[in-house]
Design a protein that fits this description.
Length: about 550
Amino acid sequence: MSDSFAELANRHCKPPGIAYQYGTAGFRMKADKLDPVMFTVGIVAALRSKKLDGRIIGVMVTASHNPEEDNGVKLVDPRGEMLEQSWEAYATTLANASSPEDLSTRIEQMVSALHIDASKPAKVIYARDTRPSGPELVASLVDGLNATPGGSVSYTDEGVLTTPILHYLVRSKNTQGTAEEYGVPTPEGYYEKLSAAFIKLIKPVGGIQGELIVDCANGVGFIATENFAKHLNGYINLVPVNTSIDKLGVLNKGCGADFVKTQQKIPPSMASHLKPNQRACSLDGDADRLMYYYLDHDGVFRMLDGDKIAALVAGFLGELVQTAGIPKQSMEVGVVQTAYANGASTNYLSQRVPVQCVPTGVKHLHHAAEHYSIGVYFEANGHGTILFSSNALKTLKTYEPNTATQRTAVNTLLALTDLINQTVGDALSDMLLVEVVLAHKGYKGAEWDSLYTDLPNRLVKVSVKDRNAFKTVDAERRLVEPQGLQARLDDLMKMYSGGRAFVRPSGTEDVVRVYAEAAHKAEADELAFKVAGMVYDQAGGDPMTRPSEFL
């Protein structure tokens, strides 16, 4: 262990009694506990780049939809995708080193096990959202980059960005000058690429009528929304709300995509902006989730979540492929969901396209979607995107249409490949996509909403001592541990019309999430709270602090 490594590592020692784990969203927790994690993540990022012969690795500092006092960090692989799953264990191992000496030993073991040539150069770019804890955590990350064995680490601070823009930059920088070049590798290149595609798609239908109210969650999405407004040439009138990015304590508070999905109501700050028959959307704190909603003619709130987005765009893509005259076997549109998808959406989609259910987490959805020519994935929480395979892109670029109608459909599909950020779920890219589809279909919120009727559902969070005591199979839809609990859930579900419920542990905190749906709202609520009560009792919860709503 060198003196310089020891000096840097001693600044960022892990406090006793804390166990860190790289989960589905990277590391995420209270910001004041993240310092040692940021240091080790810097080392992991640089080693990952060295292992991949100097390809650029991204690091995003964000806690997404979490409260402002939280923060987090995740790594981005060269094609803009999530960190390769096998490396998550190494990130966890380094983060839990008990001392600089222990950390040095663990790094040596990692370098040896993965056959990393530490003398190779490394390249890392990083960005953060608007959280006040961001700058200090970035400084810890830089210390980790500078402490990496072998040195030769170059890094670039991309500043304050949305998470999807960082993913775009990583892929664009790594593919620049190749046959797979993804775009100009700057934030401006991102805005120009997506805006040009939007204008190309929207011009034939004359633009978007009226205003689109955009809840920016008092986060970095406001900066991106403003930048898009400058590039879209008036073809859509974006009206940002909740734009206080410099005010402390307001990020995601009472607003944003997660508020809309979990509370199933309009953010109070949006109420004065929205009129009957008008739609709006909410982003989350780092602009990778999108929730739509509208007020019906009676002024009643109607939510259009990730399931509804998937139904809308999958149907549109399928129609375009058919109109283009491309055989279905040459360009299959498929949808990937998680257990949280509403049963009504799964039923609707299954009658039209192949549908696959996978465990929760972007990495699972993204990899499954790659197996389709056009893979659509959206979580119910509003995170998702569409992937076009290399074969699909080749087919679209070389296909010879027989009619003008077919040519228009092919050109529309090609423009969509530029509008959609295929690296990761991107709230603003998805927002523009939704507006294009609605304009081409002639839909307002009510017509979109009428594709199918959601089964009433309820999501309940149960705090437990050890989330690892709960283990699932079948894409997290069935419990195998604790033993016997699934059988009790099966018996309970039979008592409710259309009853479905599942239990899954969180990937980042000692919490178990309960999802339930049934034919009627009261039944869905009752089923959810009964299951939550079972989980709480099974986990040894204190009867004195048992939440009163748990049945």
